[in-house]
Design brief:
The chain is an alpha/beta fold and 317 residues long. Helices cover 50% and strands 9% of the residues. The chain has 15 helices and seven strands. The chain has helices at 2-18, 20-33, 37-40, 45-55, 60-75, 95-107, 121-124, 131-148, 171-174, 198-210, 224-233, 243-246, 261-274, 281-290, 309-316, and strands at 83-89, 116-119, 153-156, 189-194, 252-256, 293-294, 301-302. The strands form two sheets. It has a five-stranded parallel beta sheet with strand order 2-3-4-1-5, with helices on both faces. The chain has a two-stranded antiparallel ribbon with strand order 6-7. Strand 6 and strand 7 (301-302) form a beta hairpin. Helix 4 (45-55) runs antiparallel to helix 5, helix 4 packs antiparallel against helix 6 and helix 14 (281-290) crosses helix 15.
């Protein structure tokens, strides 16, 4: 009887190993009787790439960097470190939009998954004099959620409002060690969002335009070091004098360029189409003309990106 049982177990193991169909069948059964984040984690890389190129305007650096880094990360069955991306740029340029795209194409929902965790400093870390308390709470929160789901996604918005020192508690989680506090954390994704660095990004975009070049000629290497220095040396930055920056634990800085009028009008057209009013080119032109542009001499870029577009559409529709 024992020999027979062992033989059956061996056959089942062989079937599971060599037959994807059988493996998928058992996985489906497992997912119906248990709450496992691997059941919800269904990455759609092609869908993410298409969404980025279709719905993110004027951001070739973000499109290329995000799609490439996410694809490379997910190709590894056992990554040597988590994916850590830091989004930088002015208001309304698409930073929050891209973080929502990541949630939608990895977990099938923009922000509704229990495995996607968003932090807003003004809400979660409002008092600069409670840094030590916040550090302990953040460590416990991240560690607990990684224990529950190795594929957790952590999004830290408004890093310009994060009290300096809080985020450094994450340093052990971002490096190449196999485990931290007994938890394997290397499949996690961290997204930091900040307006810090927008000055150097705007300067590069303006200089490129004044030189008669296309914005698409701006390369990531042209901005990475400048953004790194900006967030490290700015006392308003959550990364102010951070060891995370010093030890280069971020996978990539992702610049979001300032948007011009043609990008604003594309945002207006998308907003109108979502309301079933695609044909209203008059509203598109009106919105493009009503937005405030900068700098004062030239007025090349929208001061708030596409942030005010929905309100402007309401005004002219």
């Amino acid at each position: 009887m024992a020999v027979r049982r062992a033989t059956i177990q061996l056959v089942l193991m062989v079937l599971l190993y060599f037959s994807p169909g059988v493996q998928c069948f058992f996985e489906r059964i497992s997912c119906t009787i248990s709450s496992d984040c691997n059941c919800d984690f269904k990455p759609n890389i092609r869908g993410l790439e298409w969404d980025l190129y279709k719905n993110l305007y004027g951001q070739h650096l973000a499109q290329d960097t995000v799609s490439e880094e996410v694809a490379n990360f997910l190709q590894k069955e056992s990554p040597d470190r988590p994916l850590v991306l830091s989004f930088h740029g002015g208001s309304g340029t698409g930073k929050t939009l891209v973080s929502s795209m990541l949630g939608r194409h990895l977990y099938g929902t923009a922000m509704g998954s229990p495995y996607i965790h968003q932090f807003v400093p003004t809400l979660h870390f409002p008092s600069p004099d409670r840094v030590q308390q916040y550090r302990l709470e953040l460590k416990d929160w991240v560690q607990g959620n990684l224990t529950a789901c190795a594929r957790s996604i952590f999004i830290f918005d408004e890093m310009e409002n994060m009290p300096p020192g809080v985020i450094d508690i994450l340093k052990p989680f971002l490096g190449p060690s196999h485990t931290v506090f007994g938890t394997n954390y290397r499949k996690a994704i961290y997204i930091f969002i900040s307006t810090i660095g927008e000055e150097v990004i705007h300067r590069m975009a303006l200089e490129t335009r004044q030189a008669g070049k296309e914005r698409e000629e701006i390369r990531l290497v042209d901005l990475e070091d400048a953004i790194s220095q900006a967030v490290f040396n700015n006392s308003r930055s959550g990364f102010f004098h951070s060891s995370i920056i010093q030890e280069k634990l971020l996978t990539s800085f992702v610049p979001f360029l300032p948007l011009g009028r043609r990008h604003v009008e594309r945002c207006a057209r998308r907003e109108l189409c979502q309301r079933g009013e695609c044909q209203r080119t008059d509203v598109v032109e009106a919105v493009g003309g009503a937005v405030v542009y900068m700098p004062e001499q030239g007025q090349h870029f929208s001061s708030k990106g596409c942030k005010s577009v929905p309100a402007k559409v309401n005004l002219f529709l």
